[in-house]
Amino acid sequence: MEESIHIRSGWLIDGSGQKALSDQLISIENDRIQSIRKSEGSSIPHADSVDCSRHTVLPGLIDSHVHLFMSGTGDRKIREDQLDAPYEKIKPVIIEHIKGLLRYGVVAVRDGGDRHAHTLRFKNESLEKDRLSLCIHAAGRAWHKPNRYGRLIGRAPAAHETLANAIMADSEAKDHVKIVNSGLNSLINFGRQTPPQFDLKELKDAVQASNHKGWPVMVHANGEMPVGIAINAGCRSIEHGFFMGKENLKKLAEKQIFWIPTAFTMKAFADHFNSGGSSTDVPLRNMEHQLEQMAMARKFGVPIALGTDAGSPGVHHGSSMIEELKLLMDAGFSVEEAIRCATGNGAKVLEIENLGRLVSGADASFIVVPGPPSHLPESLRSVQQIYVNGRLYPQDYR
Ligand SMILES: [Zn+2]
């Protein structure tokens, strides 16, 4: 049966970065957007119309960097338990996180890995059965060099094998590969950089092996050398990218490689440490430096996708979208440009056609928030409606 809905929106943000449009009529047929046009203020002629004239309609949000198996809690005991818990214990945790994401209008996520590949297993075994409408792209277990950072979210190749060989032998049914190519930000010494984990040849071969298997590569990299190697190796995206420097930013723009800055992680660290009484100085300076890089990236035309790294201490699934959007705006992005990072650009990183943009022909997946665009991102705290493929998402996830 052919179904049609007409939505009159007070404002519409289409996910392209262009300025919000006022007073639009969105017509949906068979789960797709058929047309978007000025509603001319006329009363809607259809009985099947929805009045959102005091609301803003925007594409469903995409978080391009999460760890669904971990909660954002600062409670050390809970965090340690989650790191090594069996699948049966983590499955309900993942379901809670999904509900949290939907509450804030997130309809798709890209997962950056976990030690036991629980998120990937959940996606492959349970997602459909639990009737949760979140789109999950998962890395399974990430790769890191033996004796370097990354054990929390993955594994190292065996002593006798190269990273490329390990990837070729990997039989997990995954969406992308995650490689860790640096350490973490120092929270004590501002701007201290760690050496790359893999050299250019190792990483190039690994990217080639991944692409051969149809997997794009997301690379965790902070610092000039680790980021530079990841760019030259041909990765799909740079994750974090703290202290990568101007030259790397220019290269990202030139090659149109995506950058996921995860700036809020540092603010969350500062807040977290604050409650513990330690110094907040360095994490906050890290964040400030990242905002400067984000401002430069905007100027150069680096494609940025919003990722929160939810699951890190103080970075909660769902609500952290608001925090990361705010930081993009602090770095000089307009609200529409910030939303593009969390919609249109996210869809490109995840290679999901028809999501992230509100244009005719796209899937009718969008969210409705109260008030004009100037109330964003705070208005994401009270998402009124979520449509996934033209259907109003059930409210019972709340
Ligand atoms: Zn991460």
**Strand line-up across the major sheet:** 3-2-1-4-14-15-16
The ligands bound in this entry are: zinc ion
CATH A-level architecture of the largest domain: Alpha-Beta Barrel
CATH class of the largest domain: Alpha Beta
Rg over C-alpha atoms, rounded to the nearest angstrom: 21 Å
List the defining traits of the structure above.
binds zinc ion, 12 helices, seven-stranded mixed sheet, four-stranded parallel sheet, TIM Barrel, 398 residues, single chain, 2 domains, alpha/beta, 33% helix, Urease, subunit C, domain 1
Secondary structure: elements and pairs:
Elements: E1 4-12, E2 21-29, E3 32-38, E4 49-59, E5 61-66, H1 76-84, H2 87-103, E6 106-111, H3 118-125, E7 135-138, E8 142-143, E9 154-155, H4 163-168, E10 177-180, H5 200-212, E11 217-221, H6 224-233, E12 237-240, H7 246-255, E13 258-260, H8 264-276, H9 281-300, H10 320-330, H11 335-341, H12 344-349, E14 366-370, E15 385-388, E16 391-392
Helix pairs in contact: 2-3, 5-6, 7-9, 8-9, 10-11
Bound molecules: zinc ion (ZN).
Structure commentary:
It is built from 12 helices and 16 strands. The protein is globular. Helices cover 33% and strands 21% of the residues. It has helices at residues 76-84, 87-103, 118-125, 163-168, 200-212, 224-233, 246-255, 264-276, 281-300, 320-330, 335-341, 344-349, and strands spanning 4-12, 21-29, 32-38, 49-59, 61-66, 106-111, 135-138, 142-143, 154-155, 177-180, 217-221, 237-240, 258-260, 366-370, 385-388, 391-392. α3 (118-125) links the parallel β6 and β7. Strands 3-2-1-4-14-15-16 form a 7-stranded mixed β-sheet, with no helix packed on it. Strands 10-11-12-13 form a 4-stranded parallel β-sheet. The protein starts with a strand and ends in a 6-residue tail after the last strand. The longest helix is centred in the C-terminal third of the chain and has 20 residues, at 281-300. The chain folds into 2 domains: 4-59 and 356-397, Urease, subunit C, domain 1 (Roll); 61-349, TIM Barrel (Alpha-Beta Barrel). The chain is α/β, with parallel strands linked by helices and 398 residues long. 53% of the residues are buried. Residues 65, 67, 112, 309 line the site of zinc ion (ZN).
